Amino acid sequence: MMISSLIEKYLQYIEYEKGFSSHTIASYKADLHLFQDYVKSCDLKEFKLDSIDSMLIREWIVSLRKGDKNSASSVNRRLSTLKSFFRYLKQKDLIKHNPMQQVVSLKREVRLPKFVKESEIEALLANRQELFPDNFEGVRDSTIIEAFYTLGIRESELIGIKDADIDFSKCYVSVIGKGSKQRLIPFEKKMKESFLSYLEARKELQLGNVSTFFVRKDGSPLYPMLVYRVVRNYLSEVSSLTQRSPHVLRHTFATLMLNNGAELNAVKELLGHANLAATEVYTHTTFEQLREIYERAHPRADKKT
Q1: Is position 296 annotated as part of the catalytic site?
Q2: What CA–CA distances, in Å, run from 86 to 62, 82, 175, 251, 277?
Q3: With contact defined as beta carbons under 8 Å apart, do 303 and 296 qualify?
Q4: Which one is catalytic: 78, 154, 244, 251?
Q5: So what's the pLDDT on residue 66?
Q6: CB 3.0-4.6 Å disulfide test: which of 119, 138, 166, 209 passes with 132?
Q7: Catalytic residue among 65, 162, 232, 247
Q8: Confidence at 233, pLDDT banded by 50, 70, 90
Q9: What integer pLDDT is reported at residue 137 of this predicted model?
Q10: Is residue 273 flagged as an active site residue?
Q11: Cα separation, 62 vs 272, whole angstroms
């Protein structure tokens, strides 16, 4: 069987049987086609699955890293795709040996997630009348940013929210995360008020039935680049971060929750992480907290009154 056919069968498997998101499937597809192109470039007389060994995969890793074209993190993500693909082939008895068993992921520098200061994001939301236009899109965009900050959801999760997913009486949002897993996220009074204000602004457009909660002016759903631009443009008003994306607001949510005493496992559930390791990266302490601890504890520090 041709590798292209195997890739298509694998992609169907992760879509229909594993329930992977469209974004993840697209990433896996790109990774596998990149590897397929590399194998074809190796001038093998006859391409067979058994001709792919751990040495060939290591050579592919070197080619990816050559000239720092790909970071260690990017390479490891591609290797994760290959591991999943070859594990699938082994389960289906299409290969005798899994070459990925002899391949080790690259060591990578652990980078702390970037986040917006609490004072900065609160200033943005407190001054929304001055910073956001007085129209439907202004109300929508400020609500989008507040939702990221308050709920800690992913970009795809925000785009997919439907009217029925928001329970205003119990104050929670139901979102569909990775692996089609549903989770409930509570929200507070200010977020409820913002949601209701947005619904009033949307109602004035007389759009009728819409497929998603957040929409464009013509009633069509949002798309990722639009959401990214909204977050980037408005965060630039209050933050000097070079990274100003929806994911940075998700980092902000997690960091502030943990810094303010939330339990790690609770934050894991709110974020929709599969394991604690993904959440533990947010347990760093902000410099402001370190300064506060220092000034409170060191005998030579100026005491705050």
Answers
A1: no
A2: 20, 6, 31, 33, 25
A3: yes
A4: 154
A5: 80
A6: 138
A7: 247
A8: very high
A9: 96
A10: yes
A11: 34
Residue of 97, 178, 192, 232 with catalytic role: 178
Active site residue 228: no
Q: Is 250 an active-site residue?
A: yes
Taking Cα atoms as reference points, which of 25, 51, 31, 30 lies closest to residue 40?
51
Q: State the helix-helix crossing angle for 224-235 and 136-151, rounded to 10 degrees.
A: 90
Is residue 33 flagged as an active site residue?
no
Choose the catalytic residue: 10, 28, 234, 282.
Answer: 282
Taken in order 88, 90, 94, 99, the sign of the CA dihedral is positive
- Total-model pTM: 0.63
d(CA 272, CA 225): 23
Amino acid identity for residue 49 in this structure: L
Tell me whether residue 178 is one of the annotated catalytic residues.
yes
pLDDT of residue 45: 46
Least Cα distance to 263 among 283, 248, 277, 244 occurs for 283
Residue type for position 46: E
d(CA 188, CA 173): 11
What does the alpha-carbon distance between residue 195 and residue 140 come to, in Å, rounded to a whole number? 9
Name the token pair of 57: 């995969």
> Rounded to whole angstroms, how far apart are CA atoms 82 and 279?
25
Name the catalytic one among 140, 250, 251, 268. 250
Tell me the pLDDT band of 304, cut-offs 50, 70 and 90: low
For residue 162, is pLDDT > 70?
yes
